[in-house]
Amino acid sequence: MTETPEKVAGVEVGERRISIPGFTEEGENLAAETNSAADHTHGGLGESKKVTSGAGSRANRHIGFDVSGFPEPTGREEEWRFTPLKKLAGVLSDIATDGAGTDQEPVDYQVSGAVEGVEISTLALGQSPRGAVLQPADRAAAVAYKNVDDALHIKVTEGTEVAEPIRVDITGKAAGVRANSHLVVEAEPNAKAVIVLEHRGSADYNGNVEVKIADGASVSVISLQRWNDDAVHVGQHDAEVGKDAKYKHVAVTLGGSIVRLNTNFRYAAEGARAEMYGLYFADAGQHIEHRTFVDHNSPRNSSDVLYKGALQGETARTVWVGDVLIRKEAEGTDSYEKNQNLVLTDGARADSVPNLEIETGLIDGAGHASSTGRFDDNHLFYLMSRGIPEDIARQLVVRGFMNEIIQKIEVSSIRESLAEDLERELRISGH
């Protein structure tokens, strides 16, 4: 006679459940440590060695709509210690968009692909669903939220399946000119759509994106940062994923002087699947920073995070900080995050910080990984031993490394254009 395994909140327990050393069923042993906001030092190469506090659990970080709740950062804060703050002074200042309300605004927005079942409108401050999902997690996001009178609102109505991508082209008109932006994407139950946000041109751009996904809906957001070399871009992208819904966020950053994206999602109910992918290529003088946060705040949901980057040239700099929080109530969670960086030349630097907090032992799985290095000599040897010249072999290795992310993009025209972009990047240093 086979015993039926005991279940708690629908998750198997007892001998058959996954066992994690140091955990009880409720996970208090680890939670007591991870939730503490103990003082600590950083002391990495070129980083501040001053003591900072309050950096503990992501659950304890400050969020809010009041700009005054986010003092001007100094660089000693956990959220800002990797970022070149002097170059971000323009977008962190609590000021309106230059030329707001006139035809002299520094950024042009064009929306295309709207069909039957897709509604395009604007939302004033306080008008639902604006602010229902996005909760500013740093000063930049709070400033952008406050200083946009009319947010662009894209709603996909219940049961609508949009065959072609809905595109939002965001084009900066001049370097050093300030622009605030806020976009709200709303997918009603069982709706299906792909949203493409393409950033080009030059501007000091501070942009928020919030995505509300109802039960059974499926939404992909593809954010392309193809700015000119003098552009500055900071942004927060938040999503809330409903019951049995699917969400994919893909961030591709190739252009811009400084790009810093803070991408987060949480769950409205159980049974949802959320994925977060990123691809970035930094050249000399570029600072590209991606921060991700997966908040497993309800049971039986899954997430997958994978970011890949390449760097070449003196002073090329990339940063990835990935946080996953599995709360006490999130039994049955399945989560994984990984970051990989390929350094192509001397003088480039990649920082990679994966963080995983688990407050319950009743999970299906959770893990994280990070790697940064140069070419795999075995791969090069294999290709060169078959008569492929070294420079071509290096290009093939880089293409193969990046291709995993490119294939996550549903839009074939974007996949093709990204392949061409990477070819141009590789030609810069002869790789």
TrEMBL record:
Residues 39-50 have a biased composition (Basic and acidic residues). It holds the Pfam family SUFBD_core. Residues 175-401 form the SUF system FeS cluster assembly SufBD core domain. It comes from Nesterenkonia salmonea. Belongs to the iron-sulfur cluster assembly SufBD family. This is Fe-S cluster assembly protein SufD. Residues 34-57 are annotated as: Disordered. Coiled coil: none annotated. One of its GO terms (biological process) is iron-sulfur cluster assembly.
